[in-house]
Design a protein that fits this description.
3 domains, Glutamate dehydrogenase, globular, about 450 residues, 7-stranded mixed beta sheet, binds 2-oxoglutaric acid, NAD, Rossmann fold, binds 1,4-dihydronicotinamide adenine dinucleotide, oxidoreductase, about 15% strand, nucleotide binding, alpha/beta
Length: about 450
């Protein structure tokens, strides 16, 4: 084993020892480290400056109590987290997740991914992430509001438009961002628009932010397809999930001439051979806050597949493109085999780390184009940065202009990943391209800024 590979193995073991039980965090670190052997062999300065060790340790981890009352006066306590991961490139930036499975390790894995993703956007953003184990399912608007106010009552002292800027993620959409921003404004006595992104359009939000992650994922996939002379036109696709990212991925695939025939939530999946009706999906999931089975009931030929992920649809029909847009580790090795059998030629991650390492290996060995989340879903945070730019200049841009900016950013991310993979002799390896390009940019900035 070379000296640099030995260092990677040692630092990885140290990460496991120092962060026991945080399997998702270990997985995220492992995936980046697996891409770095060639870089460290070529650039010993990264080893000498201990960048690997430093990049694995968040700059700050905040854990706090969130007391709130339900509609019957019952008192509940949840746990809140904000991991301010790395500020080498700019203020901490990344979303908040409200989901009962959230633990510190979940937020650390998401924060770690965010650091490299934000670097890939080419915009001045550090990386962070936050969340809570609060379960918003079935809670009234009043309960959600009181919860958000209590979350922000502690979180606000750690935030600021030049310090740390949260946004949405699973379970956090425009309603929650509104309540969080309202409480920040109230207790800080500042109308600091740039302190949070994903705001409503009439009070500092940006057009296209809602659509950005889903649209961006589809743009990235289109660029991958073009390297093989293909496009979305005439393709059949699957999208997992049915939330913010999934809904707008469906919309953009349809705009580009493809047909999405499956979507899902945690209760099961739908196969809709006529193509997912994006408006109905949004109405069922985001307005009525219903289940994916409700969607199936309202479409003549749609079939609900209870308890199974959307990849099960690939057992029924040919699939050209798969976009996992729900949650981590939702596309497994057996799903990869099913998709390959169904004819898939591209997979791109709208969600964060949705594909297991075994599934990625199987897809890549079969020659499937694979776009990792830190590149493919970076359009969301990039458009958050565009929202911050508009806030800072007290301006608001048109939909067309903002979408054009998003589209250019996604094209540049694709070029950067592809060129970096070429430079290191692994053409077409977008995983390595994204990891190396993100890592070197952050590590160079850390070295330039000294041992801090
Ligand atoms: N919202 C954003 O701008 C960004 C989100 N992401 C990632 O995209 C993913 C989805 O986030 P959002 O759409 O914002 O959240 P969301 O809360 O709007 O939607 C999540 C969807 O996933 C479904 N889901 C959850 N667990 C599932 C499971 N085990 N199987 C199938 N479906 C499941 C939920 O039912 C829901 O429809 C997450 O991994 C998130 O971290 C990444 C970049 C930006
Ligand atoms: O827009 C943002 O700041 C957050 C996006 C995010 O959480 C993500 O990229 O995973």
């Amino acid at each position: 084993m070379s000296l640099s590979s030995q260092r990677i193995a040692d630092v990885y073991q140290e990460v496991i020892n120092r962060n026991p039980g945080e399997a998702e965090f270990h997985q995220a670190v492992r995936e980046v480290f697996d891409s770095l052997h060639r870089v460290l062999a070529k650039h010993p300065e990264y080893v000498e400056a201990s960048t690997l060790e430093r990049i694995c340790e968040p700059e700050r981890q905040i854990i706090f109590r969130i007391p709130w009352t339900d509609d019957n006066g019952g008192v509940h306590i949840n746990r809140g987290f904000r991991v301010q991961y790395n500020s080498a490139l700019g203020p901490y930036k990344g979303g908040l997740r409200f989901h009962p499975d959230v633990l510190l390790g979940t937020v650390k894995f998401l924060g770690f991914e965010q650091v490299f993703k934000n670097a890939l956007t080419g915009l001045p953003l550090g990386g962070g992430k936050g969340g809570t184990d609060f379960d918003p399912k079935g809670r009234s608007d009043g309960e959600i509001m009181r919860f958000c106010q209590s979350f922000m009552t502690e979180a606000y002292r750690h935030l600021g438009d030049r310090v740390d800027i949260p946004a949405g993620d699973i379970g956090v959409g425009p309603r929650e961002i509104g309540y969080l921003f309202g409480q920040y404004k109230r207790i800080s006595n500042r109308y600091e628009s740039g302190v949070i992104t994903g705001k409503g359009i009439t009070w500092g939000g940006s057009l296209v932010r809602t659509e950005a992650t889903g649209y961006g994922t589809v743009y990235f996939t289109e660029h991958m397809l073009r390297t093989r002379g293909q496009s979305f036109d005439g393709t059949t696709a699957l999208v997992s999930g049915s939330g913010n990212v999934a809904i707008y991925a469906v919309e953009k695939v349809h705009e580009l001439g493809g047909t999405v025939v499956g979507a899902s939530d945690s209760s099961g999946s739908v196969y809709d051979p006529d193509g997912i009706d994006r408006e109905l999906l949004r109405d069922v999931k985001e307005v009525r806050r219903g289940r994916i089975s409700d969607y199936a009931q309202e479409r003549p030929r749609a079939e609900f597949i209870p308890g199974r992920g959307v990849w099960a649809v690939a057992e029924k029909t040919n699939i050209d493109v798969a976009l996992p847009c729900a949650t981590q580790n939702e596309l497994h090795e057996k799903d990869a085999h099913t998709l390959i059998k169904a004819g898939v030629s591209a997979v791109a991650e709208g969600a964060n780390m949705p594909t297991t390492p075994e599934a990625i290996r199987v897809l890549r060995e079969a020659g499937v184009l694979f776009g990792p989340g830190k590149a493919a879903n970076a359009g969301g945070v990039a458009t958050s940065a565009l929202e911050m730019q508009q806030n800072a200049s007290r301006d608001s841009w048109s939909f067309e202009y903002t979408e054009q900016r998003l589209s250019e950013i996604m094209e540049n991310i694709h070029i950067r990943c592809a060129e970096t993979a070429d430079e290191y002799g692994i053409p077409g390896d977008y995983v390595a391209g994204a990891n190396i390009a993100g890592f070197t940019q952050v590590a160079d900035a850390m070295i330039a800024q000294g041992v801090i």
